[in-house]
Design brief:
Blueprint (H helix, E strand, L loop, with lengths): L1 H12 L10 H5 L5 E5 L5 E5 L9 H5 L12 E7 L2 H5 L6 H11 L3 E10 L2 E9 L22 H9 L4 E5 L1 H11 L7 E6 L7 H11 L5 E7 L11 E7 L4 E6 L5 H7 L22 E5 L3 H4 L18 E5 L2 H10 L3 E5 L2 H7 L11 H13 L1 H28 L2 H10 L1
Parallel strand pairs: 4-6, 6-7, 7-11
Antiparallel strand pairs: 1-2, 3-12, 3-13, 4-5, 8-9, 9-10, 11-12
Protein backbone atom coordinates (compact mmCIF):
# COMPACT_ATOMS: atom_id res chain seq x y z
CA UNK A 1 0.00 0.00 0.00
CA UNK A 2 2.84 2.40 0.89
CA UNK A 3 4.51 1.77 -2.48
CA UNK A 4 1.23 2.51 -4.30
CA UNK A 5 0.90 5.79 -2.40
CA UNK A 6 4.45 6.76 -3.23
CA UNK A 7 3.65 6.15 -6.89
CA UNK A 8 0.72 8.54 -6.53
CA UNK A 9 3.13 11.09 -5.06
CA UNK A 10 5.24 11.05 -8.21
CA UNK A 11 2.13 11.40 -10.31
CA UNK A 12 0.81 14.32 -8.28
CA UNK A 13 3.95 16.27 -7.41
CA UNK A 14 5.82 15.51 -10.66
CA UNK A 15 9.03 16.81 -9.08
CA UNK A 16 9.85 16.73 -5.38
CA UNK A 17 11.56 20.08 -5.76
CA UNK A 18 8.10 21.63 -6.28
CA UNK A 19 6.62 20.55 -2.92
CA UNK A 20 7.50 22.00 0.49
CA UNK A 21 5.24 19.55 2.38
CA UNK A 22 3.07 22.21 4.02
CA UNK A 23 -0.07 20.05 3.80
CA UNK A 24 -2.42 22.78 2.51
CA UNK A 25 -3.59 20.54 -0.34
CA UNK A 26 -4.39 17.86 2.24
CA UNK A 27 -6.37 20.37 4.28
CA UNK A 28 -8.31 21.84 1.35
CA UNK A 29 -9.22 18.65 -0.54
CA UNK A 30 -13.07 18.55 -0.46
CA UNK A 31 -13.14 14.73 -0.65
CA UNK A 32 -10.29 14.08 1.80
CA UNK A 33 -8.57 12.18 -1.00
CA UNK A 34 -5.08 13.35 -0.03
CA UNK A 35 -2.82 11.95 2.67
CA UNK A 36 0.60 13.23 3.70
CA UNK A 37 2.94 10.24 3.41
CA UNK A 38 6.67 9.70 3.87
CA UNK A 39 9.04 8.91 1.06
CA UNK A 40 11.94 6.50 1.54
CA UNK A 41 14.01 9.22 3.25
CA UNK A 42 11.27 10.32 5.67
CA UNK A 43 10.20 13.53 3.88
CA UNK A 44 6.44 14.05 3.64
CA UNK A 45 4.57 14.47 0.37
CA UNK A 46 0.88 14.44 -0.61
CA UNK A 47 -0.47 11.15 -1.98
CA UNK A 48 -3.83 10.94 -3.75
CA UNK A 49 -6.39 8.19 -3.23
CA UNK A 50 -7.74 7.96 -6.77
CA UNK A 51 -10.88 6.17 -5.57
CA UNK A 52 -11.89 9.40 -3.77
CA UNK A 53 -10.44 12.00 -6.14
CA UNK A 54 -12.96 13.89 -8.34
CA UNK A 55 -10.28 15.74 -10.38
CA UNK A 56 -11.47 19.14 -9.12
CA UNK A 57 -7.94 20.58 -9.23
CA UNK A 58 -8.23 22.42 -5.90
CA UNK A 59 -5.01 20.84 -4.66
CA UNK A 60 -3.07 22.49 -7.48
CA UNK A 61 -4.92 25.80 -7.19
CA UNK A 62 -4.13 26.24 -3.48
CA UNK A 63 -0.47 25.24 -3.77
CA UNK A 64 1.46 28.23 -2.47
CA UNK A 65 5.01 27.15 -3.22
CA UNK A 66 5.71 30.04 -5.59
CA UNK A 67 7.08 33.54 -5.18
CA UNK A 68 3.89 35.47 -5.85
CA UNK A 69 2.80 38.56 -3.90
CA UNK A 70 6.02 38.86 -1.89
CA UNK A 71 6.85 42.06 -0.02
CA UNK A 72 9.76 44.39 -0.69
CA UNK A 73 11.68 45.20 2.49
CA UNK A 74 10.99 48.77 3.66
CA UNK A 75 13.34 49.04 6.64
CA UNK A 76 15.97 46.83 8.27
CA UNK A 77 17.11 46.96 11.89
CA UNK A 78 19.66 45.42 14.21
CA UNK A 79 17.55 44.61 17.25
CA UNK A 80 17.50 43.04 20.71
CA UNK A 81 14.76 42.11 23.17
CA UNK A 82 14.96 44.40 26.22
CA UNK A 83 13.71 41.56 28.45
CA UNK A 84 16.96 39.82 29.47
CA UNK A 85 15.20 36.65 30.59
CA UNK A 86 13.44 36.25 27.23
CA UNK A 87 16.68 37.16 25.43
CA UNK A 88 18.56 34.39 27.24
CA UNK A 89 16.00 31.80 26.07
CA UNK A 90 16.20 32.99 22.45
CA UNK A 91 18.53 31.82 19.69
CA UNK A 92 19.63 35.34 18.76
CA UNK A 93 18.18 38.74 19.69
CA UNK A 94 14.78 37.53 20.90
CA UNK A 95 12.56 39.27 18.35
CA UNK A 96 9.86 36.61 18.26
CA UNK A 97 9.40 36.58 22.04
CA UNK A 98 9.37 40.38 22.27
CA UNK A 99 6.62 40.76 19.67
CA UNK A 100 4.68 37.67 20.74
CA UNK A 101 4.62 38.66 24.43
CA UNK A 102 3.12 42.04 23.63
CA UNK A 103 0.71 40.48 21.15
CA UNK A 104 -0.54 38.07 23.82
CA UNK A 105 -0.89 40.86 26.38
CA UNK A 106 -3.10 42.69 23.90
CA UNK A 107 -5.45 39.72 23.68
CA UNK A 108 -4.08 38.06 20.54
CA UNK A 109 -3.37 34.42 19.64
CA UNK A 110 0.19 33.33 18.79
CA UNK A 111 1.13 30.34 16.64
CA UNK A 112 4.65 28.91 16.41
CA UNK A 113 6.68 25.70 16.39
CA UNK A 114 6.92 23.56 19.50
CA UNK A 115 9.22 20.58 20.08
CA UNK A 116 8.09 17.94 22.56
CA UNK A 117 9.47 14.53 23.53
CA UNK A 118 7.66 11.29 24.32
CA UNK A 119 9.59 8.12 25.20
CA UNK A 120 12.74 9.69 23.84
CA UNK A 121 11.24 10.62 20.46
CA UNK A 122 10.81 14.18 19.24
CA UNK A 123 7.70 15.70 17.73
CA UNK A 124 7.71 19.16 16.14
CA UNK A 125 4.44 20.87 15.26
CA UNK A 126 2.89 24.30 15.14
CA UNK A 127 0.53 25.05 18.01
CA UNK A 128 -1.50 28.07 19.08
CA UNK A 129 -1.23 29.71 22.50
CA UNK A 130 -3.20 32.48 24.20
CA UNK A 131 -1.18 32.82 27.41
CA UNK A 132 2.25 34.31 28.11
CA UNK A 133 3.06 31.40 30.40
CA UNK A 134 3.18 29.14 27.32
CA UNK A 135 5.42 31.43 25.28
CA UNK A 136 8.67 29.69 26.22
CA UNK A 137 7.43 26.53 24.45
CA UNK A 138 7.65 28.37 21.14
CA UNK A 139 11.02 30.05 21.70
CA UNK A 140 14.30 28.88 20.23
CA UNK A 141 15.31 27.34 16.90
CA UNK A 142 13.97 23.94 15.86
CA UNK A 143 16.04 22.70 12.95
CA UNK A 144 13.48 20.11 11.86
CA UNK A 145 10.44 20.50 9.58
CA UNK A 146 7.41 21.42 11.67
CA UNK A 147 3.97 19.93 11.00
CA UNK A 148 1.55 22.81 10.34
CA UNK A 149 -1.40 21.05 8.69
CA UNK A 150 -3.39 20.86 11.93
CA UNK A 151 -3.35 24.62 12.59
CA UNK A 152 -4.75 25.89 9.28
CA UNK A 153 -8.40 25.50 10.27
CA UNK A 154 -7.76 26.50 13.91
CA UNK A 155 -6.30 29.82 12.81
CA UNK A 156 -9.02 30.38 10.24
CA UNK A 157 -11.71 29.77 12.88
CA UNK A 158 -10.06 32.27 15.25
CA UNK A 159 -9.85 34.89 12.50
CA UNK A 160 -13.53 34.36 11.69
CA UNK A 161 -14.27 35.10 15.34
CA UNK A 162 -12.49 38.45 14.95
CA UNK A 163 -9.40 37.47 16.94
CA UNK A 164 -5.92 38.76 16.08
CA UNK A 165 -3.46 35.98 15.21
CA UNK A 166 0.33 36.16 15.00
CA UNK A 167 1.96 33.35 13.02
CA UNK A 168 5.69 32.60 12.95
CA UNK A 169 7.24 30.12 10.53
CA UNK A 170 9.30 29.53 7.41
CA UNK A 171 8.40 31.60 4.33
CA UNK A 172 6.69 28.62 2.65
CA UNK A 173 4.59 28.03 5.78
CA UNK A 174 3.62 31.70 5.94
CA UNK A 175 2.63 31.65 2.27
CA UNK A 176 0.59 28.47 2.74
CA UNK A 177 -1.30 29.96 5.69
CA UNK A 178 -2.06 33.18 3.78
CA UNK A 179 -3.37 31.10 0.88
CA UNK A 180 -5.58 29.15 3.29
CA UNK A 181 -6.99 32.27 4.96
CA UNK A 182 -7.52 34.26 1.77
CA UNK A 183 -8.19 37.98 1.58
CA UNK A 184 -11.55 37.83 3.38
CA UNK A 185 -10.08 37.06 6.81
CA UNK A 186 -6.52 38.36 6.32
CA UNK A 187 -7.00 41.67 8.13
CA UNK A 188 -6.28 40.28 11.61
CA UNK A 189 -3.54 37.86 10.54
CA UNK A 190 0.04 39.02 11.21
CA UNK A 191 2.98 36.99 9.97
CA UNK A 192 6.64 36.63 10.88
CA UNK A 193 8.85 34.68 8.51
CA UNK A 194 12.34 33.51 9.43
CA UNK A 195 15.49 33.54 7.32
CA UNK A 196 15.35 29.82 6.65
CA UNK A 197 18.31 27.58 5.76
CA UNK A 198 16.16 24.57 4.84
CA UNK A 199 14.47 21.72 6.70
CA UNK A 200 15.43 18.11 7.45
CA UNK A 201 12.64 15.70 8.42
CA UNK A 202 11.52 14.42 11.81
CA UNK A 203 12.14 10.73 10.98
CA UNK A 204 15.81 11.40 10.20
CA UNK A 205 16.15 13.47 13.39
CA UNK A 206 14.55 10.75 15.53
CA UNK A 207 16.75 8.08 14.00
CA UNK A 208 19.75 10.24 14.93
CA UNK A 209 18.41 10.42 18.49
CA UNK A 210 17.75 6.66 18.57
CA UNK A 211 21.25 5.84 17.34
CA UNK A 212 23.12 8.25 19.60
CA UNK A 213 21.05 8.37 22.76
CA UNK A 214 18.14 5.96 23.13
CA UNK A 215 20.33 2.93 22.37
CA UNK A 216 22.60 4.10 25.17
CA UNK A 217 19.59 4.25 27.53
CA UNK A 218 19.41 8.05 27.45
CA UNK A 219 15.86 9.28 26.90
CA UNK A 220 15.82 12.88 25.76
CA UNK A 221 13.36 15.40 27.15
CA UNK A 222 14.78 18.58 25.66
CA UNK A 223 16.96 19.48 22.69
CA UNK A 224 18.20 23.06 22.43
CA UNK A 225 19.97 23.66 19.14
CA UNK A 226 21.37 27.00 20.24
CA UNK A 227 21.90 27.50 23.95
CA UNK A 228 22.79 31.00 25.14
CA UNK A 229 24.72 29.70 28.13
CA UNK A 230 27.48 29.12 25.57
CA UNK A 231 27.02 32.58 24.07
CA UNK A 232 25.54 33.62 20.75
CA UNK A 233 26.44 31.03 18.15
CA UNK A 234 25.74 27.44 17.13
CA UNK A 235 26.51 25.56 20.32
CA UNK A 236 23.53 23.81 21.89
CA UNK A 237 22.58 21.37 24.61
CA UNK A 238 20.35 18.41 25.32
CA UNK A 239 18.95 16.89 28.46
CA UNK A 240 17.07 13.80 29.54
CA UNK A 241 17.20 10.81 31.85
CA UNK A 242 19.10 7.54 31.83
CA UNK A 243 17.62 4.15 32.74
CA UNK A 244 18.22 4.93 36.43
CA UNK A 245 16.12 8.11 36.03
CA UNK A 246 19.20 10.21 36.67
CA UNK A 247 19.41 13.59 34.95
CA UNK A 248 21.71 13.68 31.92
CA UNK A 249 22.86 16.86 30.19
CA UNK A 250 25.29 17.27 27.32
CA UNK A 251 26.76 20.06 25.26
CA UNK A 252 26.00 19.74 21.55
CA UNK A 253 27.81 21.33 18.62
CA UNK A 254 28.73 20.59 14.98
CA UNK A 255 31.99 18.92 16.06
CA UNK A 256 30.15 16.27 18.05
CA UNK A 257 26.72 16.01 16.43
CA UNK A 258 26.39 14.47 12.96
CA UNK A 259 22.83 15.74 12.54
CA UNK A 260 23.72 19.30 13.50
CA UNK A 261 26.85 19.31 11.35
CA UNK A 262 24.99 18.09 8.26
CA UNK A 263 22.16 20.55 8.90
CA UNK A 264 24.52 23.53 9.05
CA UNK A 265 26.33 22.31 5.95
CA UNK A 266 23.03 22.05 4.04
CA UNK A 267 23.32 18.32 3.28
CA UNK A 268 20.05 16.95 4.72
CA UNK A 269 17.24 19.29 3.64
CA UNK A 270 14.18 18.29 1.62
CA UNK A 271 14.59 18.61 -2.15
CA UNK A 272 12.45 21.76 -2.44
CA UNK A 273 14.80 23.70 -0.14
CA UNK A 274 17.49 23.64 -2.83
CA UNK A 275 15.03 25.23 -5.26
CA UNK A 276 13.25 27.51 -2.77
CA UNK A 277 11.42 30.43 -4.44
CA UNK A 278 11.48 32.33 -1.13
CA UNK A 279 15.28 32.38 -0.75
CA UNK A 280 15.50 36.04 -1.73
CA UNK A 281 15.25 39.49 -0.19
CA UNK A 282 11.56 39.90 -1.08
CA UNK A 283 9.67 38.35 1.79
CA UNK A 284 6.47 36.43 2.52
CA UNK A 285 5.90 37.75 6.04
CA UNK A 286 4.97 41.17 7.39
CA UNK A 287 8.22 41.04 9.36
CA UNK A 288 11.31 38.88 8.80
CA UNK A 289 13.44 37.65 11.70
CA UNK A 290 16.99 36.33 11.67
CA UNK A 291 20.48 36.64 13.12
CA UNK A 292 22.57 39.66 12.30
CA UNK A 293 25.70 37.64 11.61
CA UNK A 294 28.61 39.99 10.94
CA UNK A 295 27.44 42.87 13.12
CA UNK A 296 30.99 43.17 14.50
CA UNK A 297 32.24 43.60 10.92
CA UNK A 298 29.58 45.79 9.33
CA UNK A 299 28.27 47.85 12.28
CA UNK A 300 30.89 47.56 15.07
CA UNK A 301 29.73 50.88 16.56
CA UNK A 302 26.54 49.12 17.70
CA UNK A 303 28.42 46.83 20.08
CA UNK A 304 28.92 47.64 23.75
CA UNK A 305 32.73 47.49 23.59
CA UNK A 306 32.58 50.31 21.05
CA UNK A 307 30.08 52.41 22.98
CA UNK A 308 26.99 50.88 21.37
CA UNK A 309 23.79 49.45 22.95
CA UNK A 310 24.24 45.72 22.13
CA UNK A 311 26.23 42.95 23.80
CA UNK A 312 27.45 40.63 21.08
CA UNK A 313 27.56 37.55 23.32
CA UNK A 314 23.84 38.00 24.09
CA UNK A 315 22.87 37.88 20.41
CA UNK A 316 21.76 40.47 17.87
CA UNK A 317 18.85 39.97 15.49
CA UNK A 318 18.14 41.43 12.10
CA UNK A 319 14.55 42.63 11.88
CA UNK A 320 13.14 43.39 8.45
CA UNK A 321 9.94 45.42 8.08
CA UNK A 322 8.32 44.34 4.83
CA UNK A 323 5.00 46.19 4.49
CA UNK A 324 2.54 48.55 6.17
CA UNK A 325 1.13 45.76 8.32
CA UNK A 326 4.65 45.00 9.54
CA UNK A 327 5.10 48.66 10.44
CA UNK A 328 1.84 48.58 12.41
CA UNK A 329 2.83 45.37 14.18
CA UNK A 330 6.21 46.77 15.17
CA UNK A 331 4.64 50.02 16.38
CA UNK A 332 1.96 48.31 18.47
CA UNK A 333 3.88 45.26 19.72
CA UNK A 334 7.53 46.21 19.42
CA UNK A 335 7.81 48.47 22.45
CA UNK A 336 10.10 45.98 24.20
CA UNK A 337 12.63 46.04 21.36
CA UNK A 338 15.85 48.07 21.23
CA UNK A 339 16.65 48.67 17.56
CA UNK A 340 18.94 50.58 15.22
CA UNK A 341 18.61 50.97 11.45
CA UNK A 342 21.10 49.03 9.34
CA UNK A 343 21.65 48.25 5.66
CA UNK A 344 19.92 45.18 4.25
CA UNK A 345 22.93 44.60 1.98
CA UNK A 346 25.08 43.97 5.06
CA UNK A 347 22.63 41.42 6.43
CA UNK A 348 22.64 39.55 3.11
CA UNK A 349 26.41 38.97 3.10
CA UNK A 350 26.32 36.06 5.57
CA UNK A 351 22.58 35.35 5.45
CA UNK A 352 22.93 33.97 1.94
CA UNK A 353 19.34 32.64 1.99
CA UNK A 354 18.33 36.25 1.30
CA UNK A 355 20.00 35.85 -2.11
CA UNK A 356 19.86 32.22 -3.17
CA UNK A 357 18.64 28.79 -2.02
CA UNK A 358 20.91 26.38 -0.15
CA UNK A 359 23.34 24.27 -2.16
CA UNK A 360 24.34 20.72 -1.31
CA UNK A 361 27.35 18.66 -2.35
CA UNK A 362 27.56 15.05 -3.45
CA UNK A 363 27.74 14.17 0.24
CA UNK A 364 23.95 14.58 0.52
CA UNK A 365 23.33 11.75 -1.92
CA UNK A 366 25.79 9.56 -0.05
CA UNK A 367 24.18 10.33 3.32
CA UNK A 368 20.62 9.65 2.15
CA UNK A 369 21.55 6.51 0.21
CA UNK A 370 23.44 5.15 3.22
CA UNK A 371 20.56 6.06 5.52
CA UNK A 372 18.00 4.15 3.44
CA UNK A 373 20.15 1.12 2.83
CA UNK A 374 21.99 0.74 6.16
CA UNK A 375 20.35 3.01 8.74
CA UNK A 376 21.52 6.02 10.71
CA UNK A 377 24.34 4.11 12.37
CA UNK A 378 26.22 4.06 9.07
CA UNK A 379 25.55 7.78 8.58
CA UNK A 380 27.30 8.26 11.90
CA UNK A 381 30.27 6.30 10.56
CA UNK A 382 30.50 8.72 7.61
CA UNK A 383 30.56 11.62 10.07
CA UNK A 384 33.25 10.01 12.26
CA UNK A 385 35.50 9.23 9.30
CA UNK A 386 35.02 12.77 7.99
CA UNK A 387 36.04 14.25 11.34
CA UNK A 388 39.14 12.01 11.54
CA UNK A 389 40.24 13.13 8.07
CA UNK A 390 39.71 16.79 9.00
CA UNK A 391 41.74 16.38 12.19
CA UNK A 392 44.55 14.69 10.28
CA UNK A 393 44.63 17.51 7.72
CA UNK A 394 44.71 20.09 10.51
CA UNK A 395 47.61 18.29 12.20
CA UNK A 396 49.59 18.31 8.96
CA UNK A 397 48.88 22.01 8.44
CA UNK A 398 49.96 22.81 12.00
CA UNK A 399 53.18 20.83 11.52
CA UNK A 400 53.92 22.67 8.27
CA UNK A 401 53.39 26.01 10.01
CA UNK A 402 55.92 25.05 12.68
CA UNK A 403 58.53 23.90 10.17
CA UNK A 404 58.22 26.58 7.48
CA UNK A 405 59.21 30.21 8.10
CA UNK A 406 56.29 32.59 8.64
CA UNK A 407 57.13 34.49 5.46
CA UNK A 408 56.67 31.31 3.41
CA UNK A 409 53.37 30.46 5.13
CA UNK A 410 52.10 33.99 4.41
CA UNK A 411 53.03 33.62 0.72
CA UNK A 412 51.12 30.32 0.53
CA UNK A 413 48.02 31.92 2.05
CA UNK A 414 48.17 34.85 -0.39
CA UNK A 415 48.49 32.52 -3.37
CA UNK A 416 45.15 30.77 -2.57
Amino acid sequence: METERQNEVTEYVKKKQECCGCGLCYEKCPKKAIEMTKDEYGFIYPAIDRSKCIECGICKKVCAFKDEALNTVKTCYAAVNCNKQRLQKSASGGMFSAIAESFLKNGGIVCGAQMTFSKGKAHVEHVTIDSIRDLEKLQGSKYVQSDIKNVFEKILDQLKQGKRVLFSGTPCQVTALKACVGKKYAENLYTLDIICHGVPNIQFFNDYIENNFTRNNIFLQKFTFRDKKYGWGVKGSLSGENYKREKVTEKMDPDTSSYYRYFLKGEIYRESCYHCPFAQENRAGDLTLGDYWGVERFDPELLEENGGPFKEQEGVSCLMVNNAKGETLLKEDGQGILKRKILLENVKVINTQLKTPAVHTGLRNKILKTYVQKGYGKVEHIFIRQRLVEKAIKMVKDMVKKVLPKSVVDKIKKSK
